[in-house]
């Protein structure tokens, strides 16, 4: 794997030789266990909040891991049911009148996403400013800390995986913390504290680090919960993982639900599908960009292929009875922090979800939520580390302000709204910077020693540069000689050309002599293949 390995699969969708290399599996197998432990309660919680069967949440996680993980070009992104879609799913099921009708919408949404990928709509993912993505990551880290703290101390009436400020239990992120503290369970606190200590100190012992710390956390949590069961520190039933029991393969297949294809012509089905496709695509692209940002190898994931992968996942999920899915930043960042190297980690986590549902639900239901909360607390800490704030501050205010605004907006609203606010503020600073860089301005002397103002236009002069050029031209001193040089320009916006022509036409009234150098009457936008290197 190299830094220029964009898709990660030079030989197709799945490069078997690379993914089964011992050096990669040594990291991917432990990481898959971590992602499995993180994904398990999140799949259940999001299904519960969506008003869907718990089985649907697990099924979506399984498909997201195995199918999307295989088709995607990203090496570290993990797909599954998304918290950002819960309100859409909940209202859609009620509006459409049946879960089967909703499943049809999910299938159609998947088809729309595949079309998005084919027409290369994923290019929008390349336009998210870095400061906004960094802010989103830090905000997710802060949200994880605040949302998982109630689970760590043993009380949370809100569903697992909620990322919104306003909660379904009538509280918000801050008031939820206060309620949790007032209803603290000391058994859960002890388990969470021991879990965090293990996460901090276990990896430092190199001889022992071969056993993943999160796996040890779960084992310790199960043992402690069992010891506490006959004491005053006993955990309550809702403080454990609770997955549905499936006793046989036939029972598993009996839980699958089929879409109601008879409603294909119903308008509301298509409106719901379009909404899901748009929101799921945006969340996936944001997550993909964020994961590439924290990838230690700095690989670049193909955005259009990701849309096709997500669309394929949603098509299958809707057909089998699952929920809509996206690439999810919480699971993906846990995957990165656990040391994953290839997509095998995401794929194997999907198989682990399937195996846990089929063969060991009773064992899985012994896991306390407080020890899983500890894993997510550590993930949140790494995403929102102090060093990141210092790094962004040193980049200057044009980077730091959008970064902080995005954090505050995401924490106080939700992911998409918060990022939208961050993009608006980030866009302002981009415009401000762009306005100041449309040309090079210098005063030179001609052969007769007369001063000449030489304005050399940049390689690309867009509509955004219109105001700056207008101000510069109108403020030129009277009775001066001016050369406007377009020899470096590959593109000049028609509005800017109009300003230049109008200035030249009217300059004589101020005694200004204008000379245009290498400025064409029309410029066509360069095609992408004209801007790429050709050996």
From TrEMBL:
InterPro entries: SLC26A/SulP_dom, SLC26A/SulP_fam. Residues 25-396 form the SLC26A/SulP transporter domain. It is found in: Membrane. The chain crosses the membrane at residues 29-48, 54-71, 126-146, 184-202, 209-228, 308-330, 351-380, 400-432. It holds the Pfam family Sulfate_transp. It comes from the Bacteria. GO terms for biological process: transmembrane transport. This is SulP family inorganic anion transporter. It comes from Mucilaginibacter limnophilus.
């Amino acid at each position: 794997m190299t830094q220029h390995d964009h898709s990660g699969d030079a030989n197709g969708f799945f490069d078997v030789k690379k993914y089964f290399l011992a050096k990669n599996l040594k990291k991917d197998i432990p990481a898959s266990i971590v992602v499995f432990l993180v994904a398990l309660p999140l799949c259940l919680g999001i299904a519960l909040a969506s008003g869907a069967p718990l089985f649907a949440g697990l099924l979506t996680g399984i498909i997201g891991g195995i199918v999307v993980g295989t088709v995607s070009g990203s090496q570290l992104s993990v797909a599954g049911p998304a918290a950002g879609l819960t309100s859409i799913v909940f209202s859609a099921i009620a509006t459409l009148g049946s879960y089967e009708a909703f499943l049809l919408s999910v299938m159609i949404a998947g088809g729309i996403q595949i079309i998005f990928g084919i027409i290369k709509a994923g290019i929008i993912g390349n336009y998210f400013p870095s400061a906004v993505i960094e802010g989103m990551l830090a905000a997710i880290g802060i949200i994880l800390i605040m949302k998982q703290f109630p689970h760590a101390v043993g009380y949370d009436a809100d569903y697992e995986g909620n990322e919104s400020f306003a909660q379904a239990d009538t509280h918000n992120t801050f008031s939820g913390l206060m309620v949790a503290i007032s209803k603290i369970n000391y058994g859960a606190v002890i388990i969470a504290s021991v879990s965090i200590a293990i996460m901090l100190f276990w990896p430092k012992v190199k001889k022992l680090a071969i056993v993943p710390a999160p796996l040890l956390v779960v084992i310790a949590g199960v043992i402690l919960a069992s010891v506490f069961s006959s004491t005053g520190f006993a955990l309550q039933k809702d403080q454990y993982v609770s997955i549905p029991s499936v006793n046989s393969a036939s029972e598993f297949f009996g839980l699958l639900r089929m879409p109601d294809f008879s409603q294909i012509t119903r308008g509301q089905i298509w409106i719901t599908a379009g909404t899901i496709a748009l929101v799921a695509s945006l969340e996936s692209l944001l997550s993909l960009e964020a994961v590439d940002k924290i990838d230690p190898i700095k690989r670049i994931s193909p955005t259009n292929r990701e849309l096709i992968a997500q669309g394929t996942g949603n098509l299958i999920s809707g057909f089998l009875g699952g929920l809509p899915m996206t690439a999810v930043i919480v699971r993906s960042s846990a995957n990165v922090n656990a040391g994953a190297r290839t997509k095998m980690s995401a794929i194997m986590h999907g198989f682990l979800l399937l195996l846990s549902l089929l063969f060991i639900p009773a064992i899985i239901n012994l896991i306390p939520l407080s020890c899983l909360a500890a894993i997510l607390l550590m993930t949140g800490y790494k995403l929102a580390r102090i060093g990141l704030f210092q790094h962004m501050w040193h980049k200057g205010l044009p980077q730091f302000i959008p970064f902080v605004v995005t954090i505050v907006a995401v924490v106080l609203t939700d992911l998409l709204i918060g990022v939208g606010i961050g993009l608006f503020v980030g866009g302002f600073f981009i415009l401000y910077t762009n306005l100041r860089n449309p040309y090079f301005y210098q005063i030179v002397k001609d052969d007769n020693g007369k001063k000449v103002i030489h304005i050399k236009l940049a390689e690309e002069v867009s509509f955004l540069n219109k105001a700056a050029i207008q101000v510069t031209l109108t403020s030129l001193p009277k009775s001066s000689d001016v050369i406007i040089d377009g020899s470096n320009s590959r593109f000049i916006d028609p509005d800017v050309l109009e300003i230049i022509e109008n200035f030249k036409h009217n300059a004589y009234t101020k005694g200004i002599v204008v000379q245009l150098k290498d400025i064409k009457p029309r410029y066509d936008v360069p095609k992408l293949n004209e801007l790429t290197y050709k050996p």
